[in-house]
Design brief:
This protein is mainly β. The protein has two helices and nine strands, in the order E-E-E-H-E-E-E-E-E-E-H. Strands 1, 2, 3, 4 and 9 form a five-stranded antiparallel sheet that branches. The protein has a four-stranded antiparallel sheet with strand order 5-8-7-6, with no helix packed on it.
Length: 172
């Protein structure tokens, strides 16, 4: 069975990004072949170019492809940097939780429209916290090397829910 349409796909892979000073690559993520990435192909839950590069492959096929930053998680955007008043981080008692609000921490935030965001603390001053709301992989080219483990037909319930059920997927 080949990857196309709406199929349940399982892959093991290594994701790396090019090094900044050399041709070396940095491994960002690696799945264990016994615990592969499993998803419902073709419903928009993955990077489109990731799925495009797997289309037509079958169990046992190996892959090795690259995705440019703008087709992956997007280019790094300076407008996603925000200075937030320090007072926004104060608890009911007026204190700031310094175990949470510290350099490098990723904090869950919400914008004015109620959208949930993840921001990385970049700087802390006496009056504000500079946060970066870019995706952690923004601006980075992606290199995937791996193997297709399984391709199967989804159940009617998986199609209806838009995700995988059972091993490697969602459990209700």
């Amino acid at each position: 069975m080949i990857i196309d349409g709406k199929k349940i796909v399982s892959v093991s892979y290594t994701l790396s990004t090019p090094g900044t000073l050399t041709a070396d690559e940095t491994v960002v993520e690696k799945t264990d072949p016994g615990v592969p990435l499993v998803w419902l192909y073709g419903v928009g839950s993955m990077i489109p170019d990731f799925e495009m590069n797997l289309q037509g492959k079958k169990a046992g096929d190996h892959f090795d492809f690259r995705i440019k930053a703008e087709k992956g998680y997007g280019l790094y955007d300076e407008t996603y940097i925000a200075n937030i008043p320090l007072d926004a981080f104060r608890g009911k008692d007026g204190s700031i939780d310094t175990t949470m609000v510290k350099l490098g921490n990723t904090l869950p935030m919400m914008d004015n429209q109620g959208n949930h965001l993840q921001g990385v603390v970049k700087e802390i001053s006496l009056t504000e916290v500079k946060m970066d709301f870019n995706h952690p992989m923004a601006g980075k080219d992606l290199h995937f090397i791996g193997e297709v483990i399984e391709v199967r037909v989804p159940s009617a319930e998986e199609i209806e829910h838009g995700h995988v059920h059972g091993p490697g997927g969602h459990h209700h």
